[in-house]
Amino acid sequence: MADKNAFPTYRGDMEYFCLGCGARYDTTELHYTCPDCGGVFLLQDKNFDALRETSGEEWREIFDTRAGSKNDPLRGIFRFYELMAPVMDDKDIVFLGEGNTPIVQSSPQLSAELDGQKLAFKNDGQNPSASFKDRGMACAFSFLNYLIRTQGADDILAVCASTGDTSAAAALYASYASDKIKSAVLLPQGKVTPQQLAQPLGSGATVLEIPGVFDDCMKVVEHLADNYQVALLNSKNAWRILGQESYAFELAQWYDWDLEGKAVFVPVGNAGNITAIMSGFLKMYDLGIITALPRIFGVQSHHADPVYRYYAEAPKKRKYAPVEVEPSVAQAAMIGNPVSFPRVRYFAEKFEAIAGEGSFQVVQVSEQDIIEGMLLANRHGHISCTQGGECLAGLVKARQLGLISADETAILDATAHMLKFIGFQNMYYENTYPAEYGITPKPELANMPELVIDAESKEKLSAQDYTVACASSIVEKLGLKHR
Q1: Is 420 within the bounds of a domain?
Q2: Which residues of the chain have pLDDT under 50?
Q3: Which residue ranges does the record assign to the Tryptophan synthase beta chain-like PALP domain (predicted)?
Q4: How many CB atoms neighbour CB 13 within 10 A?
Q5: Same domain, residue pair 413 and 335
Q6: Backbone angles phi and psi of 76, in degrees to 5
Q7: Are 303 and 336 members of one domain?
Q8: CA distances in angstroms from 104 to 64, 71, 381, 396, 418, listed in the order given
Q9: Residues 370 and 388 reside in one and the same domain
Q10: Within 13 Å of residue 264, how many CA atoms lie on the same side as its CB?
C-alpha cells in the first residue's frame, strides 16, 4: 500500500464555473468574477469522478492516517488535498499551523442553562492569525505560489477589503509566502478593532483606510481587481473558498465521519464561510465519506441581515436585496451585500434536495443577544468572539422557534479569538455603547476590577500592616474562613 504520509500523486484538472451564466474557464490565471456576465465562480475538479474509485471507507482511512503526519504540506488543511485544490505540488503549499482547531464540548453548566442542549464550539480563533480566514488564505497563497512556479508570475500585489480578520490573515500569509508577493489592505476607517488593525501593520502590509463601511471598501477593491493587475483575496476569490471547506472536513473527522443528529451554526457576513462549509459536506457525501448531512443554520444580526430576509419569505416570493447595515458587535458579519450570496443559494438548494426541508435555515438575532451570547459562552470556559456569540444566540433562537431539539448536537462556529473583540466586552461592562448599537447592559453581567485598598491608605501603613489590611479586605470580600 502507498505511504499515506507521502504527498499525494493525484492531480485534478480545476476550472472556474460561473453560477450566473454557466461559463467555464481554465485556472492558468486568476479570475474573480465571470468576464461574460460578472457572476461569481466556483472551482470544480473535472477529474472528480475518478475520486469515486476510492471507497468512502478508504478515504476515511487515508484522512485519519494523515491527521498524524509530520509532513508539513499535509499537516494542515491540505491533509484533505484531493477534496480541495489538487493541482499544487508540495513545494507550493504554505503551512503556518492553520487548521486542526479544537472542537470543545460545552460545560455541563452551560448546557443546563440552555435547557439541556447538547453543544460544542469549534474554536477557529486558534488559527495562526486568530481567525478562520487562515484556512482560505493558506489555499489562496499556495495557489499564488503555484502560479509563480508554473506561469512565471512575478511582483504580485495581493489586496483585500476587510473588517479586520481578512486583512490580518492576508498580511500574515503574504509576509511568509514569497518575496514576490506584497500585500495591501483596505479597512473602513474607525470600524476595525485596535487588535485587528495592529495585525496587518505588524505583518508589514500597506494599510489603507477609507471612510464608510466594509461594502464601500469592497467596491474599491473590486474596481482594482477588474482594472489592474492585483490578486484579490476576498471571498470572490474561489481559491479562498476552497480552503475554508476544510472546516467541514475537520468537523466530520472529529465526529468519526458520523454527522447524524448534528446541527452546524455559522455566522453569515460575506457568506463565504457558510458557502465553503456546505460545499465541503456535499463533497464528502458525494464520495460516500459521510452518509448523512448535518443541518446548517446561518445566523445574522438584525443590523445586517439580507440573507435572513431572503429566506424568511416563502420560496416563490423570495427576492434578494442588499440592506443598509447598522453598527454591530459582530463586526466581521456587518455586511449588507454579501458577495457569496449566489453561492449560498446554489448550495442550499443542493442541501435541501438531499436532506430535505429544514436542512438549511437562517435565523435572525439581536445585537443584545449577540454580545450576551459571547459573555455567556466565555463565562463557561470558552474563548468565543462576538461571531461565536452570534452563533450561540442563533442556537437559542432556533430552540425558541422549535427548529432544533435538545438531543441534537449543535456545533457553533467561533470564527475568531475573543481577544480580537475584547473592546465590545469592555463597552458592555462599562455601559458605554453608543445608542446606535441598541444594547442596554445588564448590571448583573458586568464584571469590573475592585480596589482592595486605596493608595492613600497604603501610605499610612507599615509594610506588614499593609499586607494584613489587604488580606483582611480580601477575606471580607470573598467570605473566606480560617483553616
Answers
A1: yes
A2: 1
A3: 95-409
A4: 14
A5: yes
A6: -105, -135
A7: yes
A8: 19, 26, 10, 18, 15
A9: yes
A10: 29
CA distances to 77, 83, 85, 380 from 251, in Å: 12, 15, 19, 22
The pLDDT value recorded for residue 1 is: 41
Instruction: Mark whether 404 and 471 lie in a shared domain.
Output: no
Tell me whether residue 454 is in a domain.
yes
pLDDT of residue 385: 96
What is the count of structural domains for the chain? 2
Dist. CA 75–CA 97, nearest whole Å:
8
Q: Domain for residue 403, yes or no?
A: yes
Q: Does one domain contain both 252 and 293?
A: yes
Gap between the Cα atoms of 154 and 206, Å rounded:
19
- 380: amino acid identity, one letter: H
Q: What separation in angstroms does the CA of 398 have from each of 358, 372, 401?
A: 12, 16, 5
* φ/ψ (deg, to 5) at 335: -130, 120
The enclosing domain of 428 has a CATH number of 3.40.50.1100
* 438 and 470, same domain (yes or no): no
Residue 156 pairs with which residues in a beta bridge?
Answer: 181
- pTM comes to 0.94
CB 416 within 8 A of CB 390: no
| Separation of alpha carbons 370 and 82, rounded Å | 37
pLDDT digits (tens, 9 = 90+) for 447-466: 999 999 999 999 999 999 99
366 alpha-carbon distance from chain centroid: 20
Q: 48-75: per-residue pLDDT in tens?
A: 999 999 999 999 999 999 999 999 999 9
Query: Is the same domain home to 394 and 456?
Result: no
Q: Cβ distance 351 to 282 under 8 Å?
A: yes
Q: Which three cell numbers stand for residue 270?
A: 460575506
Report if residue 134 sits inside a domain: no
Alpha carbon distance 287, 353 (integer Å)? 17
Domain extent, residue 415, equals 103-128+241-443
Q: How confident is the model at residue 391, as a pLDDT?
A: 98
